[in-house]
Design a protein that fits this description.
It holds the Pfam family TetR_N. The chain has helices spanning 3-26, 36-43, 47-53, 57-75, 85-102, 107-113, 116-121, 124-150, 159-179, 189-205; strands at residues 181-182, 185-186. Helix content is 74%, strand content 2%. It has 209 residues and is mainly alpha-helical. It has a two-stranded antiparallel sheet with strand order 1-2. The chain folds into 2 domains: 1-54, Arc Repressor Mutant, subunit A, CATH 1.10.10; 56-205, Orthogonal Bundle (Tetracycline Repressor, domain 2). The longest helix has 27 residues, at 124-150. The relative contact order is 0.10.
Length: 209
């Protein structure tokens, strides 16, 4: 291994340590008080080292969030393209909800980066990265719903309108799973996920009378 390759590996390893340290702090109750200095202390490095990897705390948070969404999109590859659209939707939605359930440590940073004030203060470069991710999920969802319409499995309605309901239901389900309770009571995660996915499917299949 050459000197340059060793330096690149060391740089990548250090960046992962920084991200892990930030994620650990963000999973604590006092996460709003997290600073670059606290992240540096957690990673046992100097504050200046963090700025060699990330120009700001928001850039670091964005990296964590984009990594989370990248893993989510990769999980969709498990769903066979040969399945009927309704079954593909069931598998995809279930995978997505379980992915959120299995990665609770990302809850606060993902919610933080989805806030309007974060997007308003983000650099053009960061915004472009988030837009690319949004476009990727939009294309995936649009193609799946359109396939369901073409197969006669989903109602023939404007896809954009159908997505409103899916987004609202999905976002509410994620918050419920991450909070761990619904209407003040603990939930059975498996039953909750199954019921939520079937509810979304019922909306996609519904035909106005």
């Amino acid at each position: 291994m050459g000197i340059q390759e060793r330096k690149e590996r060391e740089f990548a390893r250090r960046e992962e340590e920084i991200l892990d340290a930030a994620l650990h702090l963000l999973d604590c109750d006092d996460w709003l008080s997290v600073t670059v200095e606290k992240i540096a202390n957690e990673a046992e490095i100097g504050k200046g080292t963090i700025y060699k990897h990330f120009p700001s705390k928001n850039a670091l948070y964005a990296k964590l969030t984009l990594s989370f969404y990248g893993g989510l999109m990769s999980s969709f590859q498990q769903v066979s393209s040969d399945l009927p659209a309704d079954e593909a939707f069931r598998h995809t939605a279930t995978l997505a909800l379980r992915y959120h359930l299995e990665h609770p440590q990302y809850r606060r940073v993902v919610q933080y980066c989805n806030r309007g004030d974060f997007k308003n203060s983000a650099t053009p470069e960061l915004l472009e990265q988030f837009h690319q991710v949004d476009d990727q999920f939009d294309r995936f969802g649009d193609e799946l719903v359109q396939r369901g319409i073409d197969q006669g499995l989903f109602a023939n309605r404007p896809i954009e309108e159908m997505k409103y309901g899916i987004h609202a239901c999905f976002d509410g389900a994620i918050n419920t799973l991450w909070e761990g309770y619904c209407w003040g009571r603990d939930i059975d995660n498996d039953r909750f996920i199954d019921a939520t996915v079937e509810f979304m499917l019922a909306g996609l299949r519904h035909v106005d009378q």
